[in-house]
Amino acid sequence: MITANELLGKNVLLRADLDVPIKDGRVENTFRLESLLPTLKLCLENARRTCLIGHLGRPEGLDPAFSLAPVLDELKRLTHQDILFVSSGYSPGECWKGELPLALIENLRFDPREEKIDRGFASVLSQGADIYVYEAFASFNPATSLQTVPEVLPTATGLQFDREITTLGRVLRSPIHPTLLLASGAKMDKLEIIKQIMPKFDRSLLGGKFASPNHLTPDGLDLNEEATSLFKKAISEAQTIVLNGPLGYYEDGAHAKATKEVFQSLKDSSAMTILGGGDTIAAIPDLGFSYADFGFVSTGGGAMLDFLATGTHPLLEILKNRTP
């Protein structure tokens, strides 16, 4: 865990989860940015300068539609301060100049070297930094900033990253039984990883396209009433519950019933409730709930499932295998 003393007077390169939904030039959901704030605040209070880096979407080269400018605006609002935006090229050295204590570099994916695990690009990004703080639990794609920079700079994990590892680790190592996994989705590669996780739980129930046909409404877009009752009964009997993914196509407004009822049961439950996934993060406020209604909401979706399947995170393996 990063401490104030480790940051004191240093230039901090902070890798964050900046891949947030943007609509009409504004950040549509601020959960990941708000989860960054405790670490960011610690940096601002103790570091000399802090330089934020991250991804947004999958642009094909330089594409203004994937600019981090809306993220910059939202971070200014959340931190109540001005932020230097390094928008032209990749010149991290600019982060350490001037009067502002906080800077944000434009979308790293605008540079093809980010996806190529390029050691030269890692050196460019690390220029002038004393320490790398990794606060990107949800990001586990192959990328220079995620895999190579931690090999170049002294690296510490952020406060949210540590919460993710501790909370999910407890589910694997010392959960209160009975444990329940509620998982939903549409992609078959997600189903494969869920199948790896299911034996680690006392009971598992599947929604979305993973559900059995007799659990779905006639149009196949939501759980039917019988299945919803089954899910709610399972929740009432469990002591540790992990949910990943809304249970139906809630976005259209006509198929939100099961997800809303299950969320309400989780809110009312005395069990440890852990929710995750990008669609889940969006569904919570969309359906009238607060993130505080649940025990823990993960910033990750695939990363959360990956951790439950493997018991580790790629960054932890990088740090473990670093040569002193």
UniProtKB/TrEMBL annotation:
Q: Sorted alphabetically, which Pfam families does this protein's record hold?
A: PGK
Can you supply one Gene Ontology CC term for this chain's record? cytosol
Which family does the entry's similarity section mention?
Belongs to the phosphoglycerate kinase family.
Which keywords are on file for this protein?
ATP-binding, Kinase, Nucleotide-binding, Transferase
For this protein, the record's InterPro entries field holds:
Phosphoglycerate_kinase, Phosphoglycerate_kinase_N, Phosphoglycerate_kinase_sf
- UniProt catalytic activity: (2R)-3-phosphoglycerate + ATP = (2R)-3-phospho-glyceroyl phosphate + ADP
Would you say which domain of life the source belongs to? Bacteria
What Gene3D superfamilies does UniProt report for this protein, alphabetically? Phosphoglycerate kinase, N-terminal domain (3.40.50.1260)
Q: Provide the GO MF annotations for this entry.
A: ADP binding; ATP binding; phosphoglycerate kinase activity
- Its Enzyme Commission number? 2.7.2.3
Name assigned to this protein: Phosphoglycerate kinase
What GO biological process, any one, is recorded here?
glycolytic process
